[in-house]
Amino acid sequence: MDRWAFSEGYRLGAASQQKERFGLDATCRRLRHKLAAAEATASRQAKEIGELRKALQNLMDEQNGPPLIKREPRWQVAMSDARAALESTEPT
Question: Is 1 helix (H, G, I), strand (E, B) or coil?
Fold first, then answer.
C-alpha cells in the first residue's frame, strides 16, 4: 500500500506530502534538540552525584565517633543514612 494512501482511497497531493514531510522534519529536529539537552543534563547530574558521593564519603571517613555521647543515637542514624545513600547511588 502506498505510504500516502488512506483507507477511503484518498491520496495526499504533492503539496500535502511536502507539508507533512516538513512537519515531521521539524518534529524530528525538536526531538533531537530535546534529547541532546536531556543527555547533557544527565551527564552533568551524574558528575554532580559523583562529587557529592565523594564529599559524603570523605565526611564519613573523617568521623571517629559522635561529638558527644548523648548524641550517639542521632550520630548512628546519620551514619546509617549516609551509608545507605552511598550504597543506593553506587555507580554501575
Answer: coil
In the block, residue with C-alpha cell 495526499: 12
Close Cβ partners of 17 (under 8 Å, ≥ 6 residues apart): 4
Residue-wise pLDDT tens digits, 3-56 = 555 555 555 555 566 666 667 888 888 999 999 999 999 999 999 999 999 999
DSSP-derived secondary structure letter, 4 = T
Q: How far apart (Å, rounded) are the C-alpha atoms in residues 51 and 49?
A: 5
The amino acid sitting at 38 is: A
State yes or no: pLDDT of 1 exceeds 60: no
Structural contact between residues 85 and 56, judged by C-beta atoms closer than 8 angstroms = yes
Separation of alpha carbons 3 and 12, rounded Å: 10
Q: Facing residues of 11 across strands? A: 5
- For residues 85 and 28, what is the distance between their CA atoms, to the nearest angstrom? 38
